[in-house]
Amino acid sequence: MAKYITKCKLNFYNSKKAGKIAIVTMDNGEDYRKPNTWSIEALDSLNEVLDTVEKDSDVKGWLLVGKPFIFNVGADIMSIDPNVTRDDALAIGRKGHATFKRIMGLDIPTVAAINGAAMGGGVEVSLYHDYRCIAKDPGGCDHFAFPECFIGLVPGWGGTQLVPRIAGPEAAIELIINNPLNQNRMAKATRVFELGLADRIFPPAEFVDDSIAFLEGIITGEEKVEKKQSEPKMSDELYNQTKAYIVSRVHSGAIAPYKALDLIKGAGEWTLDEGLSNEDETLADMIVSPQCKASIYSFDLVQRRAKRLPGRPQNVQGQRIRQIGIIGAGLMASQMALLFARRYQVPILMKDIKQEFVDRGIGYVRDQLAKQVKKGRMSEADARWMGEDLIKGTTTYDGFEDCDFVIEAVFEEMGIKQKVFGELEGVCKPECLFLTNTSSLDITEMASKLNDPSRVVGFHFFNPIAVLPLIEIIKADKTSDVALATAYDIAKKIKKTPVLVKNSPAFLVNRILLAMMDGVLKCVDDGAPFKQVDKAVVELGFPMEPFALLSLVGPAIALHVQETLNAAWPDRFPINQGLKNMVSKKKVSVYQGADVDPEVKEGWPQGDKQFTDEEIQQRVLERLTQEIGLTLEEGIVESPKDVDTAMIMGAGWPFFMGGITIYLDQKGYSTKVLGKTFHAGNPLAG
Asked: Residue 2: what pLDDT?
């Protein structure tokens, strides 16, 4: 049961020109940090309100709205019992449908006033209304989504049947399938209006008043609404295109998007009652599926546990940040500058050794800000202020004396990083913190030549910074609690998920990914074709093929991390000769077009062993299990939950698979390789 139960509160507004209007407010009695959700109790509350309104013949109109900043974010999935039966799951779907259909059955005009965040069942309740108004972002509805496919479910309270009927199958596919599979993207109010899912879009300041006035006009006949004429029937071409897109994103790993596609297609073939019944049956199947249970585990990790900032020193106040310094002006440094400017809105100094590098970095930031303006996500004035006034480029250390923290993103070489920190110590104030974005180097050694090594902390971003939410925070031997606490506060301010990692070669995510790559490369070395390995591994549910990942990271960087790990553990991380040859030839990809690059193949020593896809998968998963077990044994992170959080947020491990350690438990690899499970006693572990 949700701790904060949403209630539907009924008030009557006596309009001079339209008569008695029922204004129903969804409110859980907490501030905006506790959003409205649907639970059995909340649905009962809505039913009570409907009972009252149905009996009152004087009521001329109905308006549903949320508390400030929040409309409704859907069902509280954390209230789902892991041991729920299919019959109970079926009842959940039927109760939502039956309750919301009562709104559709009212014989008075109904308006849903979407004043803030609306997701899942929150969007769905709005679809049963005659009309919808939405509050324009910023300040209004900037989160409008069906996140169900992202978490191993399907919209179960009318979404798959009503969106195609109201706005067409293309809109349904965009919101229900494409957006969730694209990093769970949210739609803005303007896009919702463009799609035809809102009849009016109003500024947030007077949104409720404007929505009431709109309803008054509907009642009196003064307001005319031209409804979009949508054909719910889906063409075979659209169905096949969407199915191909799903395959490209999740392959055969996820069930939910395929089920959602069939339901959306069915909306053009079934009656509404048939469609809602089919939605009930599908939702019940999904709720009791292992993928749903795994998703609930993932959701708890990233929405609850991570937000409690495990590992942050207790009762330690972080430093106030008034100015930021960045050393380097390459791609990573430029992405940092953009993020810091948008989240902190304080002066930022970006330094590099040549003016042309600085100009290129500043140019990148301004170009990205211009794109935000073009998309309507930022005003021209704000973009100009951030890109021209807040961020300044330099080739000297002038101005760094006022920085509260400086982060370096220079070449991955220990001597260079030590030199940079030494120069900074001579310029910066004593309390200025030094952050390093190194992906693999020893941070204790990096800080060892400073007079005050306690000010150094690892702060490892993942590329692309705008997409991947993870920050690995690395505590060196002498990192102070103030430095550590401030690093956590910085991560929170820039809306990233921090995971505390022990100072160790390649830290956590890169070490795990390189262990996976070690298993992959050994299969190729022994004779498996590159394409077969790609196909076999991605079918496990990984977000991309391993050689696509290699291209994204860059073979040279992968080799550098492999060399770092090899220095520490030569038996487990041998230098791969094929990869080394590839880097020496400056190859950025194994493939040339659709085929393997002949030069890569020629320079890659291979045996003649033949593999089945299952044998390749087994090798890779056993290697992953071995390395994750060792990271936990060495105390690189505190818990398997830290491993899972890091892999979900930093490596794109699928939400619906519930974390890599849960997956390895479920498939029996942890018991086979380690002789024990990662999660003893956890029902998800199988």
From this structure: 43
